[in-house]
Amino acid sequence: MRSDFLFFIILFNLNLYLSAQSGNIQDRKEIMMILADQTIAWNEGDITKFMDGYWKSDSLVFIGSNGVTRGWQKTLDNYKSSYPDKSTMGILKFEVVDLYPIGENTYFMIGKWHLTRMKGNVGGHFTLVWKMINGQWKIVSDHSS
């Protein structure tokens, strides 16, 4: 029930966001839907499903407070190590600041993330590079701080 409500809120905000933007609306909608799916997966405590939005490749690049990580599996392992349980994961909220094309089948996203947790809230900013790979939008580079 809570996931359904959260999904509705995300879709409502998605429609408001898309109506204010220019560019390929379908591409932007698909990317924002993946972000919404990631939010739901995270908030359900499912890091592996959260990772579905990422390119499952050794070429995936993740840049965080510990430096550069290369590869989907290593990124997953780092997430699981940093967020070992649902209480540590908290409730995730994304705010997209900007999303625009930077090349053919490639988008750049700037945003904010926030985790509400009993042990203390945390948050920061992120930049994502999205690329169309085998007919699906995937995050190929993530810089989160």
From TrEMBL:
Q: Ranges for the DUF4440 domain?
A: 37-139
Q: Which ranges of the sequence are coiled-coil? A: none
Query: What's the protein called, per UniProt?
Result: Nuclear transport factor 2 family protein
Q: Which organism is it from?
A: Mangrovivirga halotolerans
